[in-house]
Amino acid sequence: MGPDIHVSSLAHSYPQGGQPTRQDARQRARTQRVRSLLLAIQSGPVDAARLAFTALTLHDGELNHHPVIARIGTALQSSLLHEAWRIAQE
User: Fold this and answer.
1) How many domains does the chain have?
2) Mean pLDDT, residues 27-43 taken together
3) Angle at the Cα of 86 (from 8 to 40), degrees rounded to 5?
4) SS3 for the chain, per residue?
Protein backbone atom coordinates (compact mmCIF):
# COMPACT_ATOMS: atom_id res chain seq x y z
CA MET A 1 0.00 0.00 0.00
CA GLY A 2 1.25 3.48 -0.82
CA PRO A 3 1.81 6.34 1.61
CA ASP A 4 -1.14 8.23 2.99
CA ILE A 5 -1.79 11.68 1.60
CA HIS A 6 -2.90 14.37 4.00
CA VAL A 7 -3.51 17.99 3.18
CA SER A 8 -2.97 20.25 6.14
CA SER A 9 -3.20 23.97 6.67
CA LEU A 10 -1.17 23.94 9.89
CA ALA A 11 1.69 26.38 10.25
CA HIS A 12 5.12 24.88 9.75
CA SER A 13 7.97 25.16 12.22
CA TYR A 14 11.41 25.01 10.67
CA PRO A 15 14.58 23.64 12.23
CA GLN A 16 17.96 25.38 12.09
CA GLY A 17 17.05 28.94 12.81
CA GLY A 18 13.81 29.16 10.91
CA GLN A 19 15.09 28.07 7.49
CA PRO A 20 12.85 25.73 5.50
CA THR A 21 14.53 22.52 4.37
CA ARG A 22 14.33 21.02 0.91
CA GLN A 23 11.91 18.44 2.29
CA ASP A 24 9.69 21.23 3.68
CA ALA A 25 9.60 22.92 0.28
CA ARG A 26 8.81 19.61 -1.42
CA GLN A 27 5.98 18.92 1.02
CA ARG A 28 4.51 22.41 0.53
CA ALA A 29 4.63 21.94 -3.25
CA ARG A 30 2.93 18.54 -2.95
CA THR A 31 0.25 19.99 -0.70
CA GLN A 32 -0.41 22.83 -3.14
CA ARG A 33 -0.69 20.45 -6.11
CA VAL A 34 -3.04 18.12 -4.23
CA ARG A 35 -5.20 21.10 -3.26
CA SER A 36 -5.24 22.26 -6.88
CA LEU A 37 -6.30 18.79 -8.00
CA LEU A 38 -9.09 18.61 -5.43
CA LEU A 39 -10.34 22.08 -6.34
CA ALA A 40 -10.26 21.25 -10.06
CA ILE A 41 -12.14 17.99 -9.47
CA GLN A 42 -14.72 19.72 -7.30
CA SER A 43 -15.33 22.66 -9.61
CA GLY A 44 -14.72 21.08 -13.04
CA PRO A 45 -14.40 21.01 -15.99
CA VAL A 46 -12.83 17.60 -16.46
CA ASP A 47 -10.00 19.01 -18.64
CA ALA A 48 -8.87 21.26 -15.78
CA ALA A 49 -8.91 18.29 -13.40
CA ARG A 50 -6.86 16.24 -15.86
CA LEU A 51 -4.33 19.06 -16.13
CA ALA A 52 -4.05 19.32 -12.34
CA PHE A 53 -3.65 15.54 -12.11
CA THR A 54 -0.88 15.60 -14.72
CA ALA A 55 0.93 18.41 -12.90
CA LEU A 56 0.73 16.49 -9.63
CA THR A 57 2.04 13.21 -11.01
CA LEU A 58 4.73 14.74 -13.24
CA HIS A 59 6.24 16.77 -10.42
CA ASP A 60 5.89 14.11 -7.72
CA GLY A 61 6.79 10.68 -9.05
CA GLU A 62 6.09 8.99 -5.70
CA LEU A 63 2.41 9.68 -6.17
CA ASN A 64 2.32 7.67 -9.40
CA HIS A 65 2.23 4.57 -7.19
CA HIS A 66 -0.35 5.82 -4.70
CA PRO A 67 -3.54 3.73 -5.09
CA VAL A 68 -5.99 6.60 -4.50
CA ILE A 69 -4.20 8.88 -6.95
CA ALA A 70 -4.21 6.06 -9.52
CA ARG A 71 -7.95 5.55 -9.08
CA ILE A 72 -8.58 9.28 -9.46
CA GLY A 73 -6.50 9.26 -12.64
CA THR A 74 -8.47 6.35 -14.05
CA ALA A 75 -11.76 8.13 -13.33
CA LEU A 76 -10.50 11.33 -14.98
CA GLN A 77 -9.33 9.40 -18.05
CA SER A 78 -12.88 8.11 -18.37
CA SER A 79 -14.29 11.64 -17.92
CA LEU A 80 -15.99 10.59 -14.69
CA LEU A 81 -15.51 13.76 -12.71
CA HIS A 82 -18.14 12.83 -10.12
CA GLU A 83 -16.40 9.46 -9.57
CA ALA A 84 -13.02 11.16 -9.16
CA TRP A 85 -14.56 13.45 -6.53
CA ARG A 86 -16.10 10.48 -4.70
CA ILE A 87 -12.73 8.70 -4.64
CA ALA A 88 -10.97 11.85 -3.42
CA GLN A 89 -13.40 12.10 -0.50
CA GLU A 90 -12.72 8.55 0.73
Assistant:
1) 1
2) 93
3) 60
4) CCCCCCCCCCCCCCHHHHCCCHHHHHHHHHHHHHHHHHHHHHHCCHHHHHHHHHHHHHHCHHHHHCHHHHHHHHHHHCCCHHHHHHHHHC
Instruction: Give per-residue pLDDT as tens, 12-29.
Output: 555 555 666 888 888 999
Residue 68 lies in a domain: yes
Type of residue found at 73: G
Provide CB contacts within 8 A for 28, sequence distance 6+. Answer: 12, 20
Residue 75: inside a domain: yes
50, part of any domain: yes
